[in-house]
Structures are given as C-alpha cells and as structure tokens.
Model the fold of this input.
Amino acid sequence: MAIAKAERLMNLALCLLGTRRPLSKRELRESIEAYLEAGSDDSFNRMFERDKDDLRELGLVIETVENLDGEVGYLARRDSNRLPPITLDAEEAAALGLAAKVWQQARLAGAASGALQKLRAAGLPEDVDPYEAHSALEPRIPVHEAAFEPLMLACRDRRPVLFDYRKATAARPEPRHVEPWALECWRGHWYLAGWDRDRGAERVFRLSRITGRVRSRGTRFTAPVPDVVTVRETVAGWAGEIADRSALIRLRSGAGYPLRAKATAVRELGDGWDELEIPYGHGLDAWLVEFGPDVVVLEPAELRADVVDRLRAVAKG
Done:
C-alpha cells in the first residue's frame, strides 16, 4: 500500500510539474492509472484531495486556477518549485541538528527529522552530519502533556479550543473556551497564553492542569492577537516572581528553608516559631500551601484568606 501511494503521488507530481496549463480533475483522473481504478467519483475525489494535501505538505507548490468557464484546474510551476542552492557550514549544520534533537522526546520528532531530510535533498553537504557535531550537547524539551500537540496546531491555525481546566484552588475542573495564542516552556512546565472567551480577558493556562481531550471549535477568533505574547512574564507574575508588597508569616523553626532564603527579615519568636517578612506577589498562596502546618500567615488578610481557600480545596480532594 505504501509503495502504491508513493507511486501515485509521484505520478501526480509529474503531471502537475509537466503541464504548461492547469489540468482539471477529470484530466488528471484520465492520466493517472490509480485514479482510473477508483471505484466512484467520491472515492476519486477523496483520494485526490488527500494526495494534493500530502504533496503540499512535502513542499510542492500547487496552484489552483479557475478559467473563464468556472472550471478549476491545478498545476505546479517549475519556477515556484525550484529552490536556490543551500550552503551550510559545519557550525550551521550542527545548530540545525541540535534544534532537531530538542524535540526527540515529543511528537515533533518526526517533523524535525523530516525537515533535515529535506535539507539533505536541497543541498546539505553529505559529509556534514548535524547529529554528530558537538554531540556532547544534548538539549531536551520534554513534552508529556497530551494537550501539547492539539494546542500547538490550534495556535498555528488560529482555531479556538475547548478544554476542561482544573485551577489550583478548585476541587473539580471546569470548561474553558480559549482562543490560543502561544505555547512556551518555563521552568520545566508548558503554558498556553490566549483569550479566555468566558472571562473576556487574557489568561495563561498550565498544560498539566488540562484534563481530558482538547476539542477544536469551528469558529474564528473574536479578539485581536497581540504582536508579542509575554507568557513567561505573565507566569512569573502569577508565580510570585514579581513582588510589589510584603507578607508577614510565622514559620516553624528548622522548616521552610526556601522561604527563609527569600525572607527580607527574620525574627525569633520562641516556642519553636520564627517570624518572617517575605516578598508578596501573585501565586504566593500556592507556594505557602506546600509547607502545610509549618506556615501560618499573619498578614495581609487577603493572602491568609487565599491560603485557607486552597487548603479547603485540598481537603475536599
């Protein structure tokens, strides 16, 4: 089956490249034996559309032309499908190889390998092996979340999506309708930035908190896509990396060393407790919850309330 399809694609490519005028579906069907053997018009149409998409995916530029009678024809102009010679030195080839190896743990591994094969066909020197140069470097971007690939494609195609999302303070996930803008990895976690239709505002979602399947919505974006999407800055702000206030907490002696490293002031209270003043930004409540009974928030009141809400959500399961 694979050989038959490859032969069919080759014949279609040769027909489209060899013609000086657009060829209609009827003419292409009469010229290619595999299309003549199609059982029905519907079967041929489905086969032809798949083959056309496959050739375009491989890089062939296929034009669709409509004549004065309204008949649609197809051709692949040679000047549109001719690449200039590609010259890469050893360092440039090594950089491409490292970029491809980054995605070896993800579903993009096949696409990265295919891109290198296309460069080989376009003139990448055979004596340069981009996988071997600087082999001591082994970059990796792990992608374990099933939501990554459908969200990546939705960002590329500008397609709204629907998924169930569990907030850190919630016991159960809830549906979110999102117009996805960009994906970015920050400190080992993948995040999606986009427009939350239900809340009418920009939001950032951590992929590990997406549950179930990501579903595409057959509509267009309703909000403009910004020229620059600051995913890391937004996540850093919500994670407490950007602090504009101070919080006062009690910390059990001998515990919470990461909090002690962040503290701007520490005072011993006795009875096994210390008082710390720490920078306060978005997301600090989530961090404090991780220390359980070793931390008591004194002020501000809003931070204390947020910590209590999170602890109650954890208790509910």
Notes: The chain has a mean pLDDT of 80. The radius of gyration is 28 Å. DSSP finds eleven helices and twelve strands in the chain.
